[in-house]
Amino acid sequence: MKKLMAVVTLTATLVATAFCEDAGFPMGLALEDALRLTLERNPQIRAARFAVQAANGRRLQAGTIPNPTLSAEVEDFGGSGESRGFDTAQTTVAFEQTIELGGKRTARKRTTTAEMKLTEWAMDVRRLDVIEETTQHFVNALAAQEELALSQEAWQMAENIYQTVSNRVAAGKDAPADEAKARAELALAKLTADRARSRLTVSRKVLCAMWGDSVPAFESVRGDLAKLAHGVPEAALLAEVMTRSPAWVRWTDEIGAAEWRLRSARRDRIPDLNVGAGIRQYKAENSQAFVAGAGVELPIFNRNRGSILAAQAELERKRAEQETAQTALRVELATAHELLTTMQRAAVTMAQDALPAAEQAFAAGRAAYASGKIGYLDIQDARRSLIEMRRRQIDILAEYHHAVAQVERLAGLGLGTIKQK
Question: Domains of the chain, with CATH numbers?
Answer without folding.
Answer: 2-65+106-269+305-420 (1.20.1600.10), 67-99+270-303 (2.20.200)
